[in-house]
Amino acid sequence: MKITWSRVAINLTVLTLIIIWTLPTLGLFITSFRTKEAISATGWWAAFGQGGFTLDNYNEVLFGGEGMATAFLNTLAVTVPAVVIPILIAAFAAYGFAWLDFPGRRFMFITVVGLLVVPLQIALIPVLTAYLAIDLNGTFLAIWLAHAGFGLALATYLLYNYISQLPKDLIESAALDGASHFTTFTRLILPLSVPALAAFAIFQFLWVWNDYLVATTFLGLNADVQVMTQRLVSITGSRGQDWQLLTSGAFVSMLVPVLVFLGLQRYFIRGLLAGSVKG
Questions:
Q1: Is the pLDDT of residue 275 over 50?
Q2: Under 8 Å CB-to-CB from 25, ≥6 apart: which residues?
């Protein structure tokens, strides 16, 4: 196999970018095992020569008084429904836009796509006002509905691009066999749409898991319902004196999103490219 200089240059460039991209994570990981004194004395790159490694940071974050264990469970309780709800609603909507003929379909779809350009920040205060009027703020239901609403436009658009490109013969064959739209959707469309569903699930999961603004707005500062991003903000102490704990807390918060991405990555590119070309 002939190796060209251009191929070598591309490989070296990609390897360099990977190293540069990975260095901050490596530094975070090493720092999370160092004592406060060692962190203050030297940088993470000198850790193996200076020593000062400990598990106390993780012990304090996970089992101490920082409340990260409770925040971890709260984050799961927020994230899982906030991913499932918009996927289910958007899948039904995408099927309707793609294969059902009803008045105003085109206008409604354009409206949904137009919502993609609306920043969610401008909707926070109106939604918060409505929540306060019905005494819903500060509950998990409030943030579930908020994340579902903010994610529906993108979910509907992505799923429509995929579902609309499925072979029309499949839909017509199901109809000829007497299948209702609901049966066609559940027995045919959903199993075939797994790549697109997984692609959006990754986007939505990462967004909700790492969200701070929406969580603070609709959950408030009640420690019983705080998520991990809120705890990470307060974990350094009122004057930033405990910032060595922040590295351990941040690395703990990274584990689940990494596992989710690795578990669904084989569907990720297929879901993004689905419906991008015809034929």
A1: no
A2: 254
